[in-house]
Each structure stands twice: as C-alpha cells, then as structure tokens.
Structure prediction request, 196 residues.
Amino acid sequence: MVLPIVAYGDPVLRKECEDIDKDYPNLEALLDNMYETMYAASGVGLAAPQIGKAIRVFLVDASPFADEEEMGKEEFELTSNFKRTFINATIIEESGDEWAFNEGCLSIPDVREDVFRQPNIKVHYFDENFKEHTEDFTGIVARVIQHEYDHIEGILFTDKLSALKKRLIKGKLTNISKGKTNADYRMRYPNAKKKR
Prediction:
C-alpha cells in the first residue's frame, strides 16, 4: 500500500526515533508498504519518520544511481544491486575528505542543494530478518545511508546548509509545509489549510 509521505514541518521529522524489536507489530507489512511508497515516489531511500512513524527503520535502493553516466565501474557495481533494509542502525564511524553532492528529499519536494558528507562509513544494523550486521559502505551508497540515517536522528539535509542557503530556501520550506508544492506522489502536509 502506498502511504502518504510526511512533508517538511511535521514534528515527527524532528524526533529522535526509537529502536524496535523483532516483535514489532506487522513489521513485514510495514516494510512492504515503505518499499512500495518509496518506489511510487521514485525515491532511493525512505525512513520511517517520513511515513509518520518515529522508529529506527529506513530503506535504501541505490540502483537508480547506476544509470548515471559519470559513474565509474566500481561504483556502478556497488549501486546497481544495492537494496537494503536498516533496522536500529548506528553509524559507528565516518571517515575521508568531505565531498559535495546535490541532495533532495521526498519530504522536501522541489528543493535540491549541495550537501557535504564524508565518503566512508561503518554501520551496525539489523536487516528485515533481524540478522545483525556491521558493514563498511562508501561513495553514493554511503551518502544515501547517511541521509536516511539523519532522518531517524531527527535531522534533515537542509539542516546541513549554510545560514545564507537556509535563508534563501526558507519561503519554499514554509510553502511545502502548507501544501503549496507540486509533488507527484501522495503527501501529508502539517500546516495545510483544512478543506471544509
């Protein structure tokens, strides 16, 4: 089932999310719905707060990046089959020289900005079967994981912008929270005027 994506301004996007255990109610259905929602919105990642749930769950499917023309062979192989569910994730380590990449977010449609992040991360997490993993990720895959991980920490990519950039997009963000945007997928707006 395709769920509405929570728009910028909703308090759930600012919550530090809670761990869950393997007995979380209807977890399998929740993950199926999250994947369906992410694909319906042409996303490469989706975190539980974006569907209104303050739990430490996010998904990543980096395969759309494999179509990028400037992608190297190694990065292509890494992204083309990268589909992963992260539960109770913790980024243990981030390393390397920060690099800029133009990021967007399904909760903040029509806003894209360059964000600086480190290229290498080590993550401890559980998969959809509650199997435990500690893995290293790099490049685009690491970046998508970092972006989604920020969501479960209550952080948005716009928080990482300079004061000037934040001022420049302030009006756009206010409009998004009111539902004045052109997302081509279902959204839930925190400050939209209720229709009578």
Q: What stands out?
A: The mean pLDDT is 93. The radius of gyration is 16 Å. The first strand starts at residue 5 and ends at 6. DSSP finds four helices and nine strands in the chain.
